[in-house]
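Q: You know discrete backbone vocabularies at least as well as I do. I have my own habits and do not want them to colour yours. No explanation is needed for now; the record alone will do.
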Amino acid sequence: MAGNITLTIIKPEAVAHAYTGDILRIISAAGFTIAALKLTRMSHAQAAGFYKVHLEKPFYRELVEFMASGPIVAAILQKENAVEEYRKLIGLTDPAKAPAGTIRQLFGETIRRNAVHGSDSDVNALKEAGYFFQVWERFDRDGNFLEPEEQVG
């Protein structure tokens, strides 16, 4: 069964351009519940840890530097089949190739400066959510703690 949470990060360039509110409105309008939300800034070590899955890729160093370059907004989003639904909403990694109306097409600049991160699997969504949020920081639409079984579907 598909999971019910995904993690998004509004990246430094989108925060700097004041796109956060517009992006969150699109997310809410698409039926996602924001289960956790925070404005933060990753240290170089935190960004390196978060993106260690890409350690051997040529873009790793640049990605880490960029993600540590300014404030970000991290959020856990809740919806049935959250990862797949959010991946559709954000569009392709390259904003120039992303479908019209997707978050990356509307707010992205380049492949790396593409406005938002979205989890690529249910397993990674759970790991990534744990990177930014403790269990007591996650709430459902009614303000109740988001139970673990609600996160995995």
Remarks:
- Helices lie at 12-16, 20-29, 44-50, 60-67, 82-90, 103-107, 122-132, 148-152.
- The chain has eight helices and four strands.
- The chain has one domain: 5-152.
